[in-house]
Design brief:
The complex is a heterotrimer of chains A (913), B (179) and C (440). Chain B is built from 5 helices and 4 strands. In chain B, helix 3 runs antiparallel to helix 4. The relative contact order of chain B is 0.28. Chain B has 179 residues and is an alpha+beta fold. Chain C contains 15 helices and no strands. The chains are: A alpha/beta (913), B alpha+beta (179), C mainly alpha (440). At the B-C interface, helix 1, strand 2, helix 2, helix 3 and helix 4 of B face helix 5, helix 7 and helix 15 of C.
Chain lengths: 913, 179, 440
Amino acid sequence: MPPHPMGETAGRRDVLLMGASVALAAAGCDGPDEHGHPLHARPRGVAAEDASYATVLDLEGLGRGVLVRTRAGHAVKLEGNPQHPASLGATDIFAEAAVLSLHDPERSRRIRRDGAPLPPAELDAALAEARAALRTAGGAGLRLLTGPIASPTLARLIGEVLAAYPGARWHQHDPLADDAALAGAMAAFGRPVAVLPDLGRARAVLCLGADPLGPGPAQLRQARDWSSGRREGRAAGRMPRLFVAEASPSLTGARADRRIPLHPAEAEGFARAVAAALGVPGLARQGAHPEAAGIAAALREAGPAGLVLAGRGQPPAVHALALAMNQALGAPGTSLRLTVPPLAQPEPMAASLAGLTSAMAANEVTHLLVLGANPLAEAPAALGFAAALRRVGFTLHAGQWVDETAHACRWHVPLPHPLEAWGDARASCGTPAIRQPVTLPLVEAARGEAELLSALLGPPQTARAAVANTWRTAWGEADFESRWDAALEAGIAGEPAPAIAPALRPDWDRPGEAAPATLTAVFAPDIGPEAQNAWLQEMPRPLTGLAWGNAALFDPLTAATLGLAPGDEAELTLEGRQVLAACWPVPGQAPGCVTLPLGGGRRAAGAVGTGRGFDANRLRPADGAWAAPGLAVRATGRRAALVATQAHHRPDEAGAVPRLAPGEALAPIQPGASLHPDWAYEGRAWAMSIDVDACIGCNACAIACQAENNVPVVGPEELARGRGMHWLRIDRYDAPPAAPAAASFQPVPCMHCEKAPCEPVCPVNATVHDSEGLNVMVHARCVGTRTCSNNCPYKVRRFNWDDHRRALDTPRRNPEVALRPRGVMEKCTYCSHRITAARTQAGLEGRALRDGEVETACQRACPTQAITFGDLNAPGSAVAALRRDGRSYALLGHLETRPRTTYLAQTVPGETA
Amino acid sequence: MSQPPPQGAIAEFTEVDGLIAAVRAARAAGWSRLDAHAPHPVPEAAEALGARAAPVAWIAVAAGIFGAATAYGTEWYLSVHDYPLNVGGRPMDAWPVFLPAAYIVGVLWAAAAALLGMLRLNRLPRLHHPVFQARGFHRASQDRYFLHLSAEDPLFEPEAALEFLRGLAPLRVSVVRAA
Amino acid sequence: MSLSTAPVVAATLRPGGWGFRIALLLALAGVAVLAGAVSTLLVLGIGVWGNNIPYVWGFDLIAYAWWIGIANAASLFAAVLVLRRHGLRTAVNRFAEAVALAAVLAAALYPILHLGRPWLFGWTIPYPATTRLWPQFGSPLVWDFWGIMAHVVVTSLFWFIGLIPDLATLRDRAATEGRWAMARAYGLFALGWRGSVVHWHRHQAAYRLVAALVLPLLLSAQTVVALEFATTLVPAWHQARLPVHVVVTGLPSGIGVVLAMAAVLRQALSLERFVDAEDMDLLARLLACAALASGAAYAHELVTGLYLEDPETRAALAARAFGTGAPAYWGAVLLAVLLPQLLWRQGLRSRAWVVIPVGLLAAAGVWLDRWSLVVGGLLRERLPAHAVAYAPSPAEWALLGGSAALFAAALLLFGRYIPVVAIFEIRHEETLTEAAEEER
């Protein structure tokens, strides 16, 4: 590969600037035609100054609705769209972080040929030439490679291209695709099927490697359903049961009521054992597992409210078994819904990419358009895609960054960020939505996929026109204008996909080959294509506490047997392919398998993303398998550079997360004795309640807080020195070995203690209480003794060891939150600027504040609504009611700091359950 | 007549005992405006001259109490009245926390007052003094002892004073004149 | 008799020898390093240090508490000598005062430099600022501001009051030799001292009074430093016994440094006559005593901490003393408690090559104790929130070495330009001795 500027290793300063989100161009005030449709506008200020827009963002090809808050034309903060079924008002880490990627100064800005920038006319000429050449050949030799496509417009345009060029072929590639699920559905029903679980109605759920609460396009919906199911179950005295059998702990596994660490080789046998115990007809082979009978009994008891989910990494037979078990339980219609898949063309993506690779290798491809995919970084190295690509004459890559694939292709075209481009998307449930730009394009030369595809058909069409055409056809000319406006305002453009009721084929059970129970590599998703996003890189991964890179995850015993201490470097060998990775033990990992997160070790992601961790794709088998036996591990004797924010094993010795049996209650929170008289809070008394039982550790609140409060990114070196700045951290506590679940997550913002220990030790009155009980930090007054942090038993205070203002003072920053200079403390404010805004608003309208009117950024983001905020003194406020709940407790309550932030304890299955 | 008027008469001794005896003799003879100079403290001579150290202590104690009270009062006024704040839920008049600084400031005042009081009582600093003009007086800070009879004494008459001093068996005597 | 004080006076007045010049050069080079470290700190901020959350304090507060400990023990020692009119005071108390003053100067660097924004240090002083905000008088850091300020002022006063008659001696010596500029300079600070026995009488009263005031002040100064830790909720720090523990375990550092200084100066300035073998003997036994008291404090800490305290405190102490903090904890016990016990042997304490290293190592042991408190105390927090340990950066080492050089330079210059031992007291003592001989 020729040397290129972006491949150079980046210095620390570059990384910090990246976290800075420097705007590339002045997003201005003149509203162009392409600009979006304002949804909300506050009474004060004109709409363009302060407005929110509904739009939709894709994850693995599927959309989640968001509202984008803009200030003076700049996108500042994303929040969930309550009307969108895949968001329900919540956001995930990827949605929260999108606004940073939008402002990434390293985004590709120029059209390039062989790495050299060219004027757009040159591209138009080249495309016209290609069009002419292809037309004569009937499209033979033309291949399109995209990510998974659910967008109706892109699907329509690709269909038109394929119709115009009969010899052309379309390939999709997604490193996270679950091809086995498709194979399982084909085996069970003979057609592709999407399984939409309703965790709110399910009474007993068995996850076979499935991670419905983990990152993914349906995470927000499923997590909300799961938490509401638990709330309703608790109120009714019948908690739903969640069983998880998996190799590596997932967010779902952490919150399971019974978790079974399972080696991938045992997965099919375990599923068969449960299916046999359930009496599923048509089993081709039996299986046995000691836990199977109990789980089957719980599922059978739940009946149609029972649910079995098979996840990524399971063999097709397990997926088919799960589908058959659901049929046997009668689950469709109750705890799940089967629909047509939202993707325009469901296909086994690994096979699709392999087909393209062999075609290229056989010189069958003359023109290749790679639209929004990055196979050079994301496909298994064993596939040989890079070598095959060199045989293609005309290669064009469209992407937001000059990434690995961009360097390997002749042409590179910058793609617009989804927040600055028109488009459309389907959610996991099939609900369509129209994507509208919320800011002027920051990259003027950018061209969307729709424009490039239409350029193959003739003169390029704008993306807006392409999208409008799609929906004009769908809705009809008469309804179009009104439905278009309504769709933009609401952020949804239609209904979810209807349920289907396919019949189980008699020969559904096709047992797989028995996998050898040797040391097995298990591949797993990580932050993946968002490697260039500094917020996501710096976010401690929920189950490992690692940031700025990945590690090979071992179970502690296997690591010890191999002589690997946490942070040691290991040489991993699979079928002759080798990679060096850091070792990190994870309690709850199934013995005999090593989890390798994908997406690390990027070679050309940018200053932020390049070279973070190791590249598991260098080991992954060419067929994109999720588990590969025969892994060899050798300790190199060296230490790996690893950024760990939490210890690898964190037992809950402080009793931070009490675990209660259903119906059990804790002692009510009572103020203890004090020598001094209590301070009376006559007016409002802000307080927060965090339901630890509902927390899935997804980190959305932490990233939302970072975005809302201009919290700086400090970079890997500083983070490794313990200088992270997150105002809200999520503590993980590993469950004791005998406990049913793997871990608990506890978000820890500032406690806003009424008897705040930080305040009396400050020599200069820089941290004091306000009249509403907020523990306020006066940055301007702080001289930086740091003694407040010493005296904070929760350690929620952060110190500006460096001056981050330059990196933060960009159009991306939230103008309502001041930037902090070097040498001062900072911490969670309970989003006091939001309190002020709401108070002002209520004052203007001449009314009292309503309960729930002030939403903190973390609360707004939380998919499970674990965070409640409000006025403790207001009669009937939700937060006051939760404080009286039997599960309510104060963290480190014996210290008598009287925190305003209190928690709700976890509920675990009782002895009898 | 070119000589300035005499400032006093001075006798030089080599031994401290000579000085002590001389001071006692001078007091017995009714001299009131006299001073003794020595390179080290001579408590007997000081007693004979009627010096008392207690005022230094009283000044220090009074200043210490005043300083501590001022510090406490200032802390109380500023915290309770001038800019009251809710600090960690403590009452504004959280009196125990005002005590350490008041105590330290009191000690500071007392120590400073001890020095300043001592200097004030000694009427120091005074860089010029007639006695410095006495012959060989620079050895008063090293190894010699001096008895100085001031001209302001009603008994003073140069020749008589010299005569009296000579009677005390000094090393030498001389008249001190302003330069 | 004029011969007897001559070496002392001559030592202060004659141009330095080669040994002195090299030592001063080295010390000044160290001060230059300090200046570099301080400039770096001010320009780049305390991010150049190795601190983090929760280890917000490290070398800064360790060095601060350590220097204060040296200053306190040395002042305490000097004041006790003055008050008890102990024979030793004539020889040693001026060093002790000088050591104390130099140590306070070194210590006073840290409360300012450790701030995130040192240029706003003035906000801890109650003055009517434009913001109308006042210091928060309940903060131990404000107590500490008063404590260190009073410490600097009172230690200086104590030292200066004792120095006035000696400055007069130097004034007169210089005048005798015809060095008028030097005489004027000394004369200005001698305030016109003319050796009046009445003045002497009040001077002695004031001197003893300030010495008496030094005692409670020193106890409070060290206590206030300890209170900065004891008033927090950190389990290893939140103990009522901590102030006493810090005062007692600080003693070997100050006495050790005074002992080592005395041994060095005795050799370097040929002052054997003024700092005689008996003085050294007494001082060495004092160090052994202080180390024993320090040992008792550790024993008390271990017994109460491990058997009587609540589980969190027990776990915190166990981590400090038996976990990863063990090397510092037991290193402190070895150097500051056990090593000085060698000095109980007459044969050892009479040798300079023994007392100099033992004195300095005792001070190093106290430094380890402060490390064990400041860093080791955070090994166990209330919540297991963090994985990252504290490691000092080169900038912190430069600051520590630089402050030691500042201390050394101050002492060298002190030894050169100001009488090392109190001239007037030696004179006094000799007079008394001769009187006694005559009586015999």
